[in-house]
Specification:
The protein is an alpha/beta fold. The chain has 3 domains: 153 residues, Alpha-D-Glucose-1,6-Bisphosphate, Chain A, domain 3, CATH 3.40.120; 209 residues, Alpha-D-Glucose-1,6-Bisphosphate, subunit A, domain 3 (Alpha-D-Glucose-1,6-Bisphosphate, Chain A, domain 3, 3-Layer(aba) Sandwich), CATH 3.40.120; 83 residues, Alpha-D-phosphohexomutase, C-terminal domain (TATA-Binding Protein). A 7-stranded mixed sheet has the order 1-2-6-5-3-4-7, sandwiched between helices. β12, α10 and β13 form a beta-alpha-beta unit. Its cofactor is Mg(2+). Belongs to the phosphohexose mutase family. One of its GO terms (molecular function) is phosphomannomutase activity. Keywords: Isomerase, Magnesium, Metal-binding, Phosphoprotein.
Length: 460
């Protein structure tokens, strides 16, 4: 598979030739380029936080990154096995110059990535990312002399600090959660969710916890993207255990979805909707999600007197729009919750705490809560791309074919069909075109997606 270079870092498969995969040489090159930029921006602050998910390749990539940063004169604070939001928050707690998260998020086990953070613990901007790519392409970096090599420190307290911040967040009610005596099943997908989620639940007073796929070995028991077709084990176990709730996270614990007490899916798209609904009842304000997310968020926002704004897909774009409209809650329909006064990053742990508080306060079950929202049906599909495919020509062809419908080209191609819509865009993380469609009828959403997928295939 090709090496994917984006504004937020680099991602690729392990094994193969340099330049075509995430090889050791590419890891060193991009780490050195990132360190160079940090030193140019602030030569005094030489601290960088790193952490990794539970992938098979994680320790190997970690050693290369640590060695490279040290060779650049950077002091490394290594969280070891961690989560993406934990690293983000640790950058701020430690007043570091930046951070690197070693995770390919929802990608399968053969993938890994370097996700780059700025001193605010947020993903670097497009402009900064372009500079990193430029430095790496030119091999324009210089290693430190032996007397100026960076220091290495291991940190085992970062997750505890993260959990403490979540438990103490003003809208989280630990006492109300504890009183419910929740029984919860967690699918940890053989990664660091097996460490972080049970620790959070215990801190919230939940004692009855069943963890599936709890070995942190990176040998994912199923496809790690928390989609319905991958969560049958969790759904069945929630029903079998007569649990109150099921929780699924992705390998780096920044995406979140729930399973109701009857074994049915709450709906990944509705994770943000429910959490936002709770937050907006206590803090009036605006919301943001990317334009591939359900319009149900707009519904609950307007019901509470706020204004909903869409953004281009990608956490950086969501965060920028949230700042621009002063949103009190936002995120992405893939189960990514961003609570800005905690930190500007997707965080499954704060999402879990707020959702459980909402259930506890309302005395509703997860199924009862889900039934309070309008049913929109989303069809999520993708088409894999081979090298050399001209996506721009494909989109121009489709744009011309549907020219009589409202079209948004801010991020790929979004076409409106009365109350329905379809969004086509290339992925930042995989060589694919994503096709998302939504309607109040499931068959209509599927048919829209199928129609557009056929349009794309005709162009290949």
């Amino acid at each position: 598979m090709p090496l994917i270079k984006s504004i937020s870092g680099i991602r690729g498969t392990i094994g193969g030739r340099p330049g075509d995969t995430l090889s050791p040489l590419d890891i060193v090159k991009f780490t050195a380029a990132y360190a160079t930029l940090l030193l140019q921006e602030n030569p005094v602050n030489k601290k960088v936080v790193i952490g990794r998910d539970g992938r098979i390749s994680g320790e190997m990539v970690q050693q290369l990154v640590v060695g490279t940063l040290s060779a650049m004169g950077i002091d490394v604070l290594d969280l070891g096995l961690s989560t993406t939001p934990t690293v983000e928050m640790a950058v701020v707690f430690e007043k570091a110059a930046g951070g690197i998260i070693l995770t390919a998020s929802h990608n399968p086990k053969e993938w890994n990535a370097l996700k780059l953070l700025n001193h605010k613990g947020e993903f670097i901007s497009g402009e900064t990312g372009a500079k990193v790519l430029e430095l790496a392409a030119a091999d324009n970096y210089e290693f430190a002399p032996v007397e100026k090599l960076g220091a290495y420190t291991a940190d085992t307290e970062a997750l505890s600090k993260h959990i403490e911040a979540v438990v103490n967040y003003p809208l989280v009610n630990k006492e109300a959660i504890a009183q419910q005596s929740f029984k919860i099943v967690v699918d940890a997908i053989n990664s660091t969710g097996a460490i972080a989620v049970p620790a959070l639940l215990k801190a919230l007073g939940v004692e009855d916890i069943i963890v599936l796929n709890a070995d942190v070995n990176g040998k994912f028991a199923h496809n790690p993207e928390p989609l319905p077709q991958h969560l049958t084990e969790l759904c069945n176990e929630v029903s079998r255990q007569q649990a109150h709730l099921g929780i699924a996270v992705d390998p780096d614990v920044d995406r979140l979805c729930f399973v109701c007490e009857d074994g049915s899916l709450f709906g990944e798209e509705y994770t943000l909707v429910a959490v936002a609904d709770y937050v907006l009842q206590h803090r009036k304000g605006n919301t943001v999600s990317n334009m591939s997310s359900t319009r149900a968020l707009r519904d609950v926002t307007e019901k509470q007197g706020g204004q909903y704004s869409p953004s281009a897909v990608g956490e950086v774009n969501v965060v920028n729009k949230m700042k621009a409209v002063e949103a009190v809650i936002g995120g992405e329909g893939n189960g990514g919750i961003i609570v800005p006064d905690l930190h500007y990053g997707r965080d499954a742990l704060i999402g879990i705490a707020l959702f459980l508080t909402y259930l506890a306060n309302t005395q509703k079950s997860a199924r009862q809560l889900r039934n309070t929202y309008t049913n929109y049906f989303m069809s999520k599909n993708k088409i894999e791309l081979n090298g050399g495919i001209d996506v721009a020509n494909i989109f121009e062809h489709i744009k011309s074919k549907y020219k009589n419908h409202p079209i948004n080209t801010e991020d790929g191609l979004k076409i409106e069909f009365d109350s329905d819509w379809v969004h086509l865009r290339t992925s930042n993380t995989e060589p694919i075109i994503r096709i998302y469609s939504e309607s109040t009828l499931e068959t209509t959403a599927d048919n829209i997606a199928k129609r557009l997928m056929q349009d794309i295939k005709e162009c290949l």
